[in-house]
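[Automated response] Your request has been received and processed.

Submitted sequence:
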Amino acid sequence: MAESFAGPTGNSLASAGETLEHDLFPEERRAIADAVPSRRAEFALGRHCARHALAALGAPRRPILPGPTREPLWPPGFVGSITHCSGYCAAAVGRGDEFLTVGIDAEPDEPLPPGVLDEIALPGEADAIAASGEGNPDRRLFCAKEAVYKAWFPVARRWLGFEEASIAFAAGGTFRATILVSGPLASMTGRWMIRDGLIVAAIAEAIDRPDRTAPYI
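Generated structure:
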């Protein structure tokens, strides 16, 4: 596994991204030609982080184009995930012969807007996270579910709704996601942390995970 980060505060994400647009491949610049400046900056910084992470694994420098739903199309033999939020960008990448999928999400450690928790939480989830006082548990739940979706989509190739994954947080900054619909993964395990005003959740599903009875490769 390799990770790359940029940020963490203020307008550093946009300003750094703007200065990195010239480093994009022509194909990448064409893919975001009609995007607003903030989106182009976000895209450029995300690709910068991703290429740093790939280089750490020995991957050659090459375009990372967006797919039909804007998901990164990783080089053959690699899996990964990119996340952006205000002032922060990160990429996590693994070799495809070691990891089935990777998902990462970062969110500001702030309460969710009113009503959002009711839309994302299953019965019992809201009560369970309320018992945890560290940071903003509602945002942590959202962050974990976003990481689950990012790990799910590349192997399932279909949407996973908030109501289709149940999250249980455990001691030591870990969580387990139970997938409530049929598909390539019945569960996932991940880690979360709070630092510098951010919540970050990440999943790296090893191909040979001992408790996976039916690998999907």
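Summary generated for your ticket: The chain has six helices and eight strands. Residues 213-217 have pLDDT under 50 and may be disordered.
If you did not submit this request, please reply to this message.
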